[in-house]
Amino acid sequence: MPSGRHGEAQGRGVAWTEERRRSDEGRRRLKAPRSRAASRAGKLPGVPESVLIANRGEIARRIARTARQLGARVIAVYSEADAGLPFVAEADEAVLIGPAPARLSYLNADAILAAAASTGAHAIHPGYGFLAENADFAQRVLDEGLTWIGPSPYAIEQMGDKIRARNLMADAGIPVAHGSSEAARDAADAVAHARRIGYPVMIKAAAGGGGIGMTIAFDDDQLRAGFETARSRAERFFGDPAILIERYISSARHVEVQILGLADGRVIALGERDCSAQRRHQKLAEETPSPGVGAGLRERMLAAAVQAGEAVGYRGAGTVECLVDSQTGEFVFLEMNTRLQVEHPVTEMVTGIDLVEQQLLIADGAEVSFDPGSVQPSGHALELRVYAEDPVRFLPSPGAITEWKEPVGDGVRVDAGYAAGNVVTPHYDPLLAKLVVHGADRGQALDRARIALGEFVVAGPKTNLAFHADLLNSREFASGDYDTSVVSRLRP
């Protein structure tokens, strides 16, 4: 999915949207909106009356489910390519905001705000990706008098740049990887940083995400080549060529902590998630609790995550990502994601806490619906991201879905963005669904996941369901003793 951190509406897209919005063809109400009186009836106090979801696919559908359960009117926005998807049909109201390219639709802030005005939306939930971590967009939402369901623009801005974020965390006393405290000016400057830090190093786009603009260098020549590639990709994808050079931990686990910044100013942690199963630095499977984190390390990581949230006055749901050195057992701050994570369901499964519900309540200044002082995670949860992609080379595989059958059973949850008859287009991230399972312990969760995978049927485009079966059956993953290279060893 394209990053929205630096996405800006382009002139052609704004003009196109405005022209089409004024026509009956361009602005299509799929369902008649409920009256405001009707939408208030049964609405939970502290929940916005109506929520526009500035996203698509499975996350739009998942947010809508909770918003609807709480009595809010659900407003969807969609591109021409997504007109037939379930999240559009299931909304109380849906507005076409542009053609398929994200820059002309889901990254078009003007079009989204126009949709909010025309539908009388009271709040905007950005989901993840697209404009979710765009501080300028968050500020525009607030300037329009709407409720922004997310952290403050200040927190987004502070954490949106990896260099600024790591410096802020270091000042707050949180462990960070040895790296550059300022952007590398050019390849020669990058080499100087790397020699000071010590090889191997990771080359990162300071404003990036999703593994884009990220590569490893083991010597000066690799660094020079990788620097130019990373800088070019950073400019193209994020509009910012700034590059961070950081010490590369060769044997590491990627572990993150879910935090909630409450309306009263407190920040709490709701446990950690292990996200080490990755391809091209992008997550494929997540679980909680992490099988590689003991009680002492967990306590330190959760405390550091709370401290990180407090450092920026965090409100709402956020995630503090860390790398854990498998050899030393020490952790360092990686980045903070100022939004809801793709993998949030595993935390929900072990805590019983609906994170979207808490986002809605906190954004409206209300108390959360659980006791923050008595959260007791129970059991083990695992999430598998189901993509329309080749299960060996991990290349996208768009196409029409001719059959779709979701697994059911105890501890099984599917957050899906598609159904039979839908078409997976090449315009967006090919995530189809998230298969989430919960068990009394890790062994039961793995058993349930294997059974559920065997029952999940998607015909038409290629999917990575076969890869997940191989992952769960691999000795390394099943043992719990794995790191971020586990997928590369499974798919050399």
SS element count, helices: 17
Bin the strand percentage: 15-25%
- How many domains? The number is 3
Per DSSP E runs of 2 or more residues, the count of β-strands stands at 20
CATH topology-level fold name of the largest domain = D-amino Acid Aminotransferase, Chain A, domain 1
Q: Note the main sheet.
A: 8 strands, antiparallel
Show unreliable segments. 1-41
Shape: globular
Radius of gyration: 22 Å
| Largest sheet: spatial strand order | 13-12-9-10-11-14-19-17
Q: Termini, distance in Å?
A: 25 Å
Please give a quick description of this structure.
By secondary structure, this protein is of the alpha+beta class.
Notable characteristics:
492 residues; alpha+beta; Rossmann fold; Dna Ligase, domain 1; D-amino Acid Aminotransferase, Chain A, domain 1; 3 domains; eight-stranded antiparallel beta sheet; five-stranded parallel beta sheet; 34% helix; 23% strand
Characterise this structure.
- The chain has 492 residues and is of the alpha+beta class.
- It folds into 3 domains: 11-149, Rossmann fold; 178-247, Dna Ligase, domain 1 (2-Layer Sandwich); 252-490, D-amino Acid Aminotransferase, Chain A, domain 1, CATH 3.30.470.
- Helix content is 34%, strand content 23%.
- The strands form 5 sheets. An 8-stranded antiparallel beta sheet has the order 13-12-9-10-11-14-19-17.
- Strand 2 (73-79), helix 4 and strand 3 form a beta-alpha-beta unit.
- Helix 6 packs antiparallel against helix 7 (153-160) and helix 14 (442-455) packs antiparallel against helix 15 (465-473).
